[in-house]
Amino acid sequence: MTDRPAERPGPGPEQQRTTPAVRPYVITQGRAGTGAEPLPWETLVMATDAAFPASLQPEHHMILRQCQGLLSVAEVAAYLGQPPSVVQVLLADLVDWGLVVLRPPIPPADRTDVTMLRKVLHGLEHRL
Fold this sequence. Notes:
Elements: H1 24-27, E1 44-47, H2 58-66, E2 71-72, H3 73-80, H4 84-96, E3 100-103, H5 115-127
Antiparallel strand pairs: 1-2, 1-3
Region (Disordered): 1-24
Protein name: DUF742 domain-containing protein
């Protein structure tokens, strides 16, 4: 018997790297937040018609290509394969530069006032 630990085989040709080579803190340049309120995940994002500067990071370009139509922050994060917190920082950059516009989520209806719904229900019941 030997006291050496068993050697682990290296990755073979059929095994691929499962972690990204570029870490999230590198993508956001060390920023964990935007200084403002973080974007809700359901906020809709769309790229403007402005020309994309060539000096942007690849992740910014990927966001702008994905957001030709309306996408939520969560969808953008899924398409990029990045955590939503990273995408929120990148989107805040693009908003500051005027390259994307945001449509905030619709607030939930006020559920304490149901008088209008009761009137509609009462009217429907009388017509049927």
